[in-house]
Design goal:
275 residues; elongated
């Protein structure tokens, strides 16, 4: 995940929260230093001009070897600050585990959906209604990617103008989640919820964002809390659909490698298989 585009304002606020939480958790200069040192990496070549370390630990200039935690946090790369925050249970909107994982899937499978989702997370605070519309478009994109795959081979032109609600119904049908002969009743109930979530996100995009234009009297989503809730819901549903598709329908690399090797009796490097 690219942490280079994190808002400077967000990072400043996050560092303040991390600083406070670490002191609450560990209490003393000694324990705080021990905790931070567990995140610290270097090449142990202290005499070299090219000595490498992943961040610099700042100490106070009082001869006591007391860590200056806030200064150290500000010298850390943003990704380490975020990881520490997640470990300490601090709210990190846009960086919940599902979100970076989902972004990685999108980056590999659908660049357009990836760009929409990236913009959604960045716009959640300043333009929450726009973030909702982008999250909806992202979920549409990952469902279309699955349906257009050779496994189902749906025509892209046919899917182009389908709403998120209709796309969700289609993917549930393809996966057999609504078939009582293939699924237990609880799965059918969950499938109904998947359709409901998609329909609700679809309604939010159409009725409560500026995606289709609004008059001055119409309400649009104006609270980042609702935007992040929608983004997280889309990430969770989208990630589940992709992982289910990948597990149930895509051949595993090892199986493909074995089939190729058996056919030609030549050594196969798994990294050469392009999926």
């Amino acid at each position: 995940m690219d942490y280079g585009d994190i808002s400077r304002k967000f990072l400043m606020e996050l560092i303040d929260k991390v600083d406070k939480k670490i002191w609450e958790q560990y209490g003393s200069y000694e324990n705080v230093a021990y905790y931070i040192e567990k995140w610290h990496e270097d090449d142990e070549d202290y005499t070299s001009y090219n000595h490498w370390e992943n961040f610099y630990i700042q100490y106070k200039d009082d001869g006591q070897k007391q860590i200056n935690l806030k200064a150290t946090l500000h010298k850390m790369p943003p990704d380490i600050v975020v990881k520490i925050a997640i470990e300490l249970g601090i709210d990190t909107p846009g960086f919940l585990p599902a979100i970076p994982t989902f972004k990685n899937v999108l980056k590999d499978e659908n660049q357009s959906a990836y760009q929409n989702f990236d913009r959604a997370t960045k716009n959640a605070y300043e333009h929450p209604d726009n973030a909702v519309a982008l999250a909806s478009s992202t979920l549409e994109g990952i469902i279309k990617t699955i349906l257009e795959h050779d496994t189902f081979n749906e025509d892209a032109a046919k899917l182009k103008n389908l709403s998120l609600s209709k796309l969700a119904k289609e993917i549930v049908k393809k996966f057999g989640f609504d078939d009582a002969t293939k699924c237990p009743p609880e799965i059918i109930t969950l499938a109904g919820q998947l359709r409901s979530i998609a329909a609700t996100v679809d309604d939010l995009r159409s009725d409560k964002s500026t995606a289709h234009g609004k008059s001055g009297k119409d309400y649009v989503v104006d609270d980042p809390l609702w935007a992040m809730f929608t983004i997280n819901a889309c990430a969770t549903v989208g990630l589940f659909l992709w992982e289910y598709f990948e597990k149930k329908y895509l051949p595993k690399k090892e199986e493909v490698a074995k089939a190729i090797k058996d056919a030609g009796d030549v050594p196969i490097n798994l990294d050469d298989i392009p999926f």
